Amino acid sequence: MSALTAEPETAARDEEPPDTGERHRLTAVTGLAALSLDAMASVAYGPEAIVLVLAAAGGHGLGFTLPVTLAIAALLAVLVASYRQVIAAFPDGGGSYAVARAHLGRRASLVAAASLVLDYVLNVAVAVTAGVAALTSAFPGLYGDRLWICLAVLALMTAVNLRGIADSAKAFIAPTAVFVLAMLTLVVVGLLRSAPVSTEAAQGHASVLADNATTVGALLLLKAFASGCSALTGVEAIANAVPSFRAPRAKRAQHAEIALGAVLGVMLTGLAVLISRFHLQPVEGVTVLAQLADASLGHNWAFYVVQFATMTLLALSANTSFGGLPVLLKLLARDNFLPHVFALKADRQVHRHGVLTLAGVSAALLVLSGGDTNTLVPLFAIGVFVGFTLAQTGMVVHWRHERGPRWRGKAALNGLGALLTGVSAVVVTATKFHDGAWLIVVALPLLVAAFETVHRAYSGIGERLGLGRVPDCPRRARSLVVVPVSSLSRLTSEALTAAVSLGDEVRAVTVCHADPEDRAQAEALERDWALWNPGVHLIRLPSARRTLGRPVAAYVRGIEATEPGTRVTVLIPEVEPARAWQRVLQNQRGAVVAHAVRRDTDAAICRLRFRLS
């Protein structure tokens, strides 16, 4: 299989033998911990996004919090059901990219992939900055160092994920469990109360209710719905990362998807009920979730447990991107839309290049934003809505082609989901356009263009290499080996021994510069060479400039021009030190010669390592 054609992934991976690293893959529980943190943490800002929009209509508008949340929960159910089908139909992962590629064409699939890439990268930056913002709210003295704290958290996340997704999942099971338990406790206790037990958290903070309240119209409700849909980010992550699960992969991923939908739906609905029950009003400087914890549990240690659990999960929710994006990049690389290095796996089933690339781009975003959440939030969630819409539309086409049992109902469900998420994508983009969403509108086509450019490059290379066609039979040609030397040593002897074993003819070359010292050294080498008499001719290559690689490359070009049909190999002898630190003592002449020959000629390059014991 050529290096330019990635090995195809098939559904047969569910039958892989147990010795292929299964212990480094996810179970349903660890998959929930590794890939649902983004969705779980969204309950910290999803309900608040709804309340802040409805606050424009005053207290009357806040009465629509529960209906809007129920609509979002219904959409969540549609998405979970849809992605459960996506997992079954596309067990190689990829989510909306895989669906769009199969049913909507290449361009739509690239739009889906680009939207997911942007969403994953922004999720890391937003999650880390939001978590650190919660920390600096509790400890204001750290505010000036928030950027360095963000980068430290990102470095820690990267290091954990480089150990493997299964190991990272195990590290995040406890924080996820604590957060879910805290939220469910908050909801249950709150439902048992007839009035808030405490309002201390909101005291002294100005209300954000509009003084000149607007009417509650369809546009306001639609905007609240679209803003609240930010709570749905991360629902697609499990479908994107199906290959990371243990066999049977599809079933385990489906179980994790259903569990995510159930837990997230219960938390969103429960918090919305409490907002209506306690007639909560948003205030400046205090989150809605903090007010709910205060009202349900009181301003005591339980309140701080909820805050700490929320802070921790927000910071760790970046792990969803580390679990989903490398798999997506692998699929894009397999389809020749990204460099094939992204398809490589290291030990512990880690797509190392994808993890490091995600960390690098996210670090750049953190630096550019100064670690400020508000700078990044307007860019967040648009990409995932685009992916949702394309995935749902693709599944409608899928059901029309498959026409299995009850396919009309399934297609109608996906069609409704596509309509709702499509409208949400348009509304969010329009309402947040001047707040920075225009960057996503610009970045999306640029990323698609980059995918197309890489694909054209691979197609051109494949055409020139004749991939897919039977090549000519190999034939023997005259072989000439050129060996650059600068002195006589055991290294020179080893190089010539290897050269005479490889080629029909061997020529040693030495570069001589114009200054008297270099000429004297070259003459001394020629005298010693004649006395040694290794049976290989030594050729002096004069050079007016103090360069080493260009004279050798020019000599090789001359051979290619005057001796057509000769296969030229440049054998470059180099010392391999006994200790790694001793490499800094080397002069790197071999690398200079290799670069010049590779750049200017068609000769083969052989770098001979002489190991010093």
TrEMBL record:
Organism superkingdom: Bacteria
Membrane topology category: Multi-pass membrane protein
Biased segments, Basic and acidic residues type: 10-22
Pfam family, any one: AA_permease_2
Listed transmembrane segments: 68-90, 110-135, 147-166, 172-192, 258-281, 301-329, 350-370, 376-399, 411-430, 436-454
Region Disordered: start-end pairs: 1-22
Recorded GO MF terms: transmembrane transporter activity
PANTHER family: POTASSIUM TRANSPORTER KIMA (PTHR47704:SF1)
Protein name in UniProt: APC family permease
Organism: Streptomyces alboniger
